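Project standup — Tuesday

K.O.: blocked on the structure for the chain from last sprint. Re-posting the sequence here as requested.
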Amino acid sequence: MSKKEPFLKNRLKSIGYAYKGAKLLLKTESSIKIQFAVAFIVTIAGVYFKLSPTEWMIQILAIGLIVAVEGLNTAIEKMADFIHPEHHNKIGFIKDIAAGAVFYAAITAIIIGLFIYLPKIFEI
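H.V.: unblocked you, prediction finished:
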């Protein structure tokens, strides 16, 4: 029987792995780089338009949703490519579904952005 690590040490290791994964995503994936650029732009827009605390929370939630789903999509694609490097219809189907999830998240974030910013831009 192996000795179990203390809870706090185990959690700190998990946070370290998560941080490493976040860095790898940002360093290696162009889609994440684009998402971060868009997040930076809408953050500047939020400062400019003086978003309310509620609008900030919703905007941050939308940004987090996109980045998280994009990260999961990347993980699914990498795993699928590792398991079956050649083109395969079922692997392609799985990858398309994962990309579709990113699409849904992006459409949701765009709609949220429109609700937040259109009234401010056009003073509706």
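K.O.: great, moving the ticket to review. The chain has a mean pLDDT of 93. The two ends are 67 Å apart (CA to CA).
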